[in-house]
Amino acid sequence: MDKYYHSVTLDKDKCMGCTNCIKRCPTEAIRVRDGKARIMAERCIDCGECIRVCPYHAKVAVTDPLTSIEKFPYKIALPAPALYGQFKNASINAILTGLKKLGFDDVFEVARGADYVTEFIKEAMRDPERKKPVISSACPAIVRLIQVRFPELIDNIINIESPMEIAARLAKKEFCQKNGVKEEEVGAFFITPCAAKMTSIRSPIGIERSCVDGAISILEIYGPLYNEIVRLEEDDSLQTASPYGVLWANSGGESSALGLDNHLAVDGIQNVIRVLEEIEDDKLTDLEFFEGLACPGGCVGGPLVFENGFVAKNRIRRLSEKAEGRHLSREEIVGTKKKIQWSFEKEILPKPVMKLDDDITLAMKKMEAIERIYDGLPGLDCGSCGSPSCRTHAEDIVLGYASEMDCVFKLREKVKELAQQMIELSEKIPGGKVTNKSE
Asked: pLDDT by residue (tens digit) across 171-195?
């Protein structure tokens, strides 16, 4: 496997070099060089913000096609609760039944996985030694953001697997026991609203290997699923998640399910960054739990959804009120902890994204050069050079990715200087102009 796997990719043929993306990327992972964008793999967290803002649709998320389920004899659909908000006047049971009509042998709600994660977090929060505020691990883009920009907060991340992973493990266990088949014969496919989940399957955080075998985008499955929903008789026994599990699709759903007095839920990656900065500066020491979601409105606002996020959010709220799934018993929680891996098995490590040099002496010299070049730049952070800020432009120059003349202001100064030199030269020549010796 490559060191960096990413679902978010660039279609160079569509890219017009407009620089919209470089200003919105939360980890400064994009540059524009020679009229085309370039995504820096070591910095990208697959949040999908560039997909959202690109006017030419040059940023795309690579997910699995629906046909990929045929690689397995038995297939299980793992629908994200955000899927429920995509269809007008469709019940959760109708959506789950439609998934089975598409070729899945079984469905297991990720919202039910969220019910289990809620209970696991409640137990973990009782530990008086736990570092506060506890930060949710549900959004993989935010976890990767912390690795890249806020490594000091890694210890605050709750070491519990995501609802997607819990759902996949439970789904496979239950299906194999019920049908007497081997686990390697069963493929579990997440129906995803975002690119970050695809990346977390191929390159997981905190675990050796994901139990999920693929991710199909909501955009990919919407049309075929809609055609099934409008003409089926729904199975009213498929929906098992509680109202709280269904609400995990919306920002604040996880926090509400925990029932804590002092929690904070923030959506939109730039908003999350501002709160993480305050946590890092010890300004929110009284906060118990922080739920950060990269997408506006929560998972319902993901870049791979079909419906308007605000409309979907309202549908999720109404569907949660009708959800008939019961709350988990103490026996179910204890039993589940015994039969599946539910917590992280690997330490989450920082991601060094700006290693100037392996030699510390050379690295220090390069840092000094960056400061010197940065002091000479205008400090406007206009992005016209192809770097997101003057600071990153100075870094790119030292690392050999850019030239100082890529800055239009430095270029203008150079042009003025050359023009002045030409004037001074012409004044020194008889007649005030450059003459040809052959005349």
From this structure: 999 999 999 999 999 999 999 999 9
Minimal CA–CA distance to 411: which of 371, 384, 389?
384
Instruction: Give me the chain's average pLDDT, please.
Output: 92
What is the fold, at CATH topology level, of the domain defined by 66-130+158-254+297-339? Answer: Rossmann fold (3.40.50)
Sign of the alpha-carbon torsion through 146, 151, 156, 161 = positive
**pLDDT band, very low/low/confident/very high, at 438 (cuts 50, 70, 90):** very low
Instruction: Say whether pLDDT at 331 is over 80.
Output: yes
Place of tokens 């400061």: 371
Torsion of CA 29, 32, 37, 40, to 10 degrees: -30
Find out whether 154 and 348 touch, Cβ atoms under 8 Å. Answer: yes
pTM for this prediction:
0.89
Q: Which residues contact 352 (CB under 8 A, 6 or more apart)?
A: none
Q: Which fold has domain 8-61?
A: Alpha-Beta Plaits (3.30.70)
Predicted confidence (pLDDT) per residue in 33-51, tens digit = 999 999 999 899 999 999 9
Mean pLDDT on 394-422: 90
What type of residue sits at position 11?
A: D
The domain made up of 360-432 has a fold known as 3-methyladenine DNA Glycosylase II; Chain A, domain 3 (1.10.15)
| pLDDT tens column, 256-296 | 999 988 999 999 999 999 999 999 999 998 999 999 999 99
d(CA 183, CA 196): 25
Cα-based distances in Å from 305 to 309, 320, 349, 379: 8, 19, 31, 38
